[in-house]
Design goal:
Elements: H1 3-7, E1 11-14, H2 45-55, H3 59-101, H4 108-115, H5 118-147, H6 157-172, H7 175-204, H8 217-220, H9 234-251, H10 256-260, H11 268-277, H12 279-297, H13 303-307, H14 316-323, H15 329-361, H16 379-388, H17 400-435, H18 450-467, H19 480-504, H20 520-528, E2 549-552, E3 555-557, E4 563-564, H21 570-579, E5 584-588, H22 593-602, E6 604-605, E7 608-609, E8 616-619, H23 624-638, E9 641-642, E10 648-649, E11 656-660, E12 674-677, H24 687-700
Parallel strand pairs: 1-5, 1-11, 5-8, 11-12
Antiparallel strand pairs: 2-3, 3-4, 6-7, 9-10
Protein name: Amino acid permease/ SLC12A domain-containing protein
Pfam family, one: AA_permease
Organism: Ascoidea rubescens DSM 1968
Length: about 700
């Protein structure tokens, strides 16, 4: 730096300047919070791939598919499931592009709100969350019914309570714990799905206790199609197909669950395209091939399929095992099925909490829903979803099968609404890109069929949404409860949208006015600076155990041998700042300032105690604006800037750069402070980010 540059140098407030990896252990003593308002990117590629596969497999695929078989027969089952897979794949094409472009918390809920319309987006978000809560209750209720396969000698509330408490614990422990739990549970689900495919092949060619080579026997006897009305007319067979198609829309999981994780995925621009690309293969393997297997192994008129006492007994696979006289395997199947059901409910619980969090982040839900624990778990969202999941206790006073059908009706309508709106958001997204001069070719991920397939998926979901409850309108078939559970969601969504539009009167945006930019800069910086290496970080008020001791100038250890050091580029940055007479302030909300101070007295930079490099330490429960203001008050009493003509000048807020890893602290810019975001707290302040922060400040203040 020249002398002139020294006089124009900013004063640096550093939040995330300490420490970097030594033996892959890490400390960030200047990012210490008792709570945060941010989720954290901790889901790895390995976890995302298994989550994506596991999200396809649940109670509906292994049990409820039996109802679809009884409605239409094996041929209709195969045709309807294959057809609906094409609809879901259309949504995958469109959603993948938007998610990779803007992988944020809330994902497509945010896209719909920003690009379709605020009122529609808010209504969609609330109906989706409500639908997810219904699915959580569905899975919890089904979990108890599976246990009935072995015994009914237990209070019904016990499994409901145990499962619900375990969901809460997994969420509270953090997304990395959730990801690991779901990784292994999803592994069980995938194993079970493959086991059923192999079971079908081997038993149909004669590898069963009866040595019966049954092949496609059930396609001939009782037949390929069901005479749904018993009239023998074409309409009767068509109604059977329509009912199977409705069940397919409930069973076939889309890419929406993958997209919801976007705000917590490591290196999303690399990981998410890989995950979305596998959707086509998963749809074929689990649903097209799965529906074919079910039609092969089980007759559509099996007694248990039509009137089984427990859901486990209604599974086509369990029925097949009984017909073939296979002992022991039904118990094994149902044991793994329990993990499948548990995993599905756990996934729905996660999606509901993250959707609510994303809604709050967009300012469309009360701000307290943004409150998170230190590990990024949105604790208030977890509390609300937990309360809603208590709907599962309805099964204590009603027939469990009836309650399950209620939940299926609500969630099916919810699914079709948001799948329809995802495609609407994509249409608006493409219009916005064109109107704002953003080349479509500049997107990090594109799909060749997305421009037309979005319309196909949108129209199919719209049609099925309104015909799914058609049977209540047939003469003599009216049932108020059935009507409500089939059509409550669309009217609920329309009602919320209407109320929001009346109360808030949000502007209907033209394509050139759509917000395609907000939040994109931080994501771009995170992805550009991402380093593919696992790191371990900690906070001195929660992870460090005293006493501390130094084992070298650059490394210290705590009482349990946990090694701490500066981030890689930090010592050189601090030395450069000090050499150029730039003031350095450290700020944090730490509860353990004594521990933080001890760490700075043990770590050295060029044989000097690192604490001597800091001109002011501001620690305590205050905002960054208060920290910086207090620091400047003290610095202006001790230090004075000299201008070119030798006159003294006090330090001002516009001379401060805050390097910080929490985007919420960007509010300091309202007070003239320059905010430099550190997108990846695993790697803290790097040389690249430091230079960028200085240059951005200089440009803003006319020094370049």
């Amino acid at each position: 730096m020249s002398d002139t540059e020294k006089h124009n140098s900013p004063q640096v407030e550093v939040e995330n300047i300490s420490t970097g990896p030594t033996k892959k252990n890490f400390l960030g003593i200047f990012s210490i919070e008792n709570t945060t308002t941010q989720t954290q990117r901790r889901l790895s590629n390995r976890q995302c791939q298994l989550l994506a596969m596991g999200s396809c497999i649940g109670t509906a695929l292994l049990i409820s598919i039996g109802s679809a078989l009884s409605y239409g027969g094996p041929a209709n089952l195969f045709i309807a499931y294959t057809f609906w897979c094409t609809v879901v794949y259309g949504t995958n094409c469109t959603l993948s592009e938007m998610t990779v472009y803007y992988p944020c918390d809330g994902s497509w809920i945010v896209y719909i709100t920003r690009w379709v319309g605020e009122s529609i987006g808010v209504a969609n978000a609330w109906q989706y969350i409500f639908g997810l809560v219904a699915l959580v209750a569905f899975e919890i209720t089904a979990f108890g019914l599976i246990i009935n396969y072995w015994t009914t000698d237990y209070p019904t509330w016990v499994p409901i309570t145990c499962v619900l408490i375990s969901y809460i614990l997994v969420e509270v422990l953090g997304v990395n714990i959730y990801g690991e739990v779901e990784f292994w549970l999803a592994s069980c689900k995938v194993f079970l799905a493959f086991m059923m495919i192999f079971y079908t092949f081997f038993t149909m060619v004669g590898a069963n206790p009866q040595c019966w080579v049954y092949g496609f026997h059930y396609w001939k006897n009782p037949g390929s199609f069901v005479d749904y009305l018993g009239t023998g007319t074409k309409l009767s067979y068509f109604e059977g197909f329509v009912n199977v198609l409705i069940m397919a829309s409930f069973t076939i999981a889309g890419p929406d669950y993958v997209s919801i994780t976007a705000g917590e995925v490591k290196n999303p621009r690399v990981v998410l395209p890989k995950v979305f690309k596998t959707v086509l293969y998963r749809l074929f393997l689990f649903f097209v091939l799965g529906s074919l297997c079910v039609g092969i192994i089980c007759p559509y008129n099996a007694d248990d399929l039509l009137s089984g006492g427990s859901k486990a007994a209604q599974s086509p696979y369990v029925i097949s095992m009984k017909i073939l006289g296979i002992k022991g395997l039904p118990d094994f199947f149902n044991a793994i099925l329990l993990t499948t059901i548990y995993s599905s409910g756990n996934g729905f619980f996660y999606c509901a909490t993250r959707s609510l969090y994303g809604l709050a982040n967009e300012g469309k839900a009360p701000g307290f829903f943004k409150i998170c624990l230190r590990n990024g778990s949105p604790i208030v969202c977890i509390a609300l979803v937990s309360a809603g999941s208590c709907l599962a206790y309805l099964s204590l006073s009603n027939n469990s099968a009836k309650v399950l059908n209620w939940f299926i009706g609500l969630s099916t309508a919810s699914l079709m609404i948001y799948m329809m709106l995802i495609n609407a958001a994509y249409i608006r997204f493409r219009q916005g890109l064109k109107a704002q001069g953003i080349p479509y070719e500049s997107l990090a991920y594109r799909h060749r069929d997305s421009s037309w397939i979005c319309w196909y998926s949108l129209v199919m979901n719209f049609i099925l949404l309104w015909i799914q409850g058609y049977y209540v309108f047939k003469p003599g078939s009216w049932d108020t409860a059935t009507f409500l559970f089939c059509y409550f969601m669309p009217f609920f969504t329309i009602g919320i949208a209407f109320i929001w539009q009346i109360l808030k009167r949000p502007k209907i945006l033209k394509p050139e006015e759509l917000d395609l930019i907000t939040g994109l800069k931080e994501i771009d910086e995170y992805c550009d600076n991402y380093v593919e290496e696992e790191q371990t970080k900690c906070w001195c008020d929660t992870h460090i155990n005293t006493p501390l001791r130094s084992i070298s100038d650059s490394t210290i250890v705590d009482a349990y041998g946990f090694e701490l050091s500066f981030y890689k580029d930090v010592p050189g940055i601090i030395q450069e700042l000090k050499d150029n007479n730039v003031k350095i302030v450290a700020a944090s909300r730490t509860w353990a300032p004594d521990v933080a101070k001890k760490i700075l007295t043990l770590l050295k930079i060029n044989n000097e105690l690192s604490i001597k490099y800091f001109d002011e330490l501001q620690w305590g429960e205050h905002t960054k604006v208060i920290h910086i203001t207090n620091a400047l008050k003290k610095l202006n009493k001790t230090y004075v800037n000299e201008t070119k003509d030798g006159k003294s000048q006090k330090l001002g807020l516009d001379e401060v750069i805050l390097f910080d890893d929490e985007s919420r602290n960007k509010d300091v810019e309202r007070h003239g402070i320059h905010f430099a975001f550190l997108p990846n707290e695993d790697y803290g302040l790097t040389r690249k980010l430091f230079v960028k922060g200085i240059n951005d400040w200089a440009k803003k203040n006319g020094h370049l």
